[in-house]
Amino acid sequence: MTVDSALALGLPAKRSGPASWLSSYAAMLRWETRGARLLFPLIVVVQILAGAGFVLGFGLLIPNIDADMALYLSTGAVVMSLILIGLVLTPQVIAQQRMEGSYEFLWSLPVPRSAATMASVTLAALAAIPGVAAAMLVAVWRYDISFMVSPSVVPGCLLTLLCGCFIGTAVAHGVEEPQVTLLFTQLAIFFIIGFSPVSFPVDRLPSWLATVHEFLPFHHMAVVVRSSLTTGLVTVTLLDWVVVAVWTLVTGVITGLVLVRRK
Amino acid sequence: MTAVSEHLPVRSGVGFWVDGYRSMLRFETKSLRSYLTIGLVVQVLMGAGMALMYGYYFGDLTPLQQTFIVTGIPALAMVPVGFAMVPASVMDHKIRNTYDYVWSLPVPRGASAAATFTIFTVIAIPGTAAAILIATMIYDIDLQVSWLVIPAILLTSAMATSVGYALGHVIPEPRVTNLITNMVIFLVLLFSPIVVPIEQFPEWWGSVQRVLPFWHMSLVIRDGLTDGLVTDAGASYLVLTLWTVAAWAATGWVVAKRR
Prior knowledge:
The complex is a heterodimer of chains A (263) and B (259).
Chain A lengths: L2 H6 L9 H18 L3 H23 L5 H34 L2 H6 L4 H31 L9 H22 L3 H18 L11 H9 L2 H12 L8 H23 L3
Helix pairs in contact in A: 2-6, 3-4, 3-6, 4-6, 4-7, 4-8, 4-10, 6-7, 7-10, 7-11, 10-11
Chain B lengths: L13 H18 L1 H26 L4 H33 L3 H6 L4 H31 L9 H22 L3 H18 L11 H9 L1 H13 L8 H23 L3
């Protein structure tokens, strides 16, 4: 249908361009914020408890915890908050929409799908901040350690957060069955907390699993973020940045493909 | 209603109770069968997964510390069944509005409660055994298994199921139960002296743990699996029994209440 024929039918002209995208993004951000206003405080509280609890709890359990291990643990908690918010919260919200039957309605709104997705990513990023702050504050208070924050913390945290959000979004939109999505989030939590070298050194894993983690993004995310919050604890290489960037790019493209798919 | 009572006698007695218990056992087993299978898998994964995971977080461990982890795993494996799956199964009836239906079945309520309780207590046992076995293989620890492990596992399983069952019935709002079970799992995994000695904790928190059931669960099982590591398990048996009795009293109060 050309613009002229659309006008002849009395339909509004097709909107496109950055300005239209931005105003859609702003509208969806307002929409998402209002939709989440009851849930958001609860998510923030859970994030704070999880971040602080993780650092405190493992601090109690680990025998003879030293400053280095405490630093490892608290920076690990930061990374886990950043990964899990996108990997768990986003799919859970979308699974909920599918179960309630509001999913199709949201897709029918006259906004670009990428604008809608970026609005929920923005909200997830805001929700991650309190958990990150809680993990760091508790570590400073309990173990008397100090962080050396370098500017690379901004790209490091952003890439980590985006990559998690992209994976979560792709799964939630790609998988039709909400129960399967919820199962995925549970397994993701279990795998990232228990079997990813985010909060403990990679050499404690069996060698085959360590090899697997060279190709997965989580270990590299941990190295990138940890090196920007501390000095002397880990050495970051260009490879770590490249792996995280490539994962973010690829998952971004996949998410894009899933989003533009039509039924 | 006296006029019709000849034709509709109220059934009672031990025979009727046992019949009701057996019917409810079949009823619950069939309605929960896929749920119970998942429960068994979750338990084994949780037990084995936690055994590995604590090892990664703790780093180099002495044989004594390893023994603590291995003998703490069975107690840990029982927690998700007792404190999450049992309340969730009760909640499921409340959410689907079948809660009152189950109570309306012509069986004694006590028989119905006892049937649910039996199923979950029994389902916890093979998962726990598998978790011990896997943990032992991971750490290559020689355990000194004594007959005491049988009453220990039965009592801890019964206690966990009872408290979970009471939580499910006593709390009216499903969301609150959900919140509490999540808090319990969090508390147990990160803040309880199950895989480490209680002396490692700050004194005030140790005192709190001596009242809560989780440390006692690990202690009686450890007593049945090792020699000389636990000195006074009698008090723990008593605490666990008290928790079980309290849970049954609370459940009985709700179950017997008529609306």
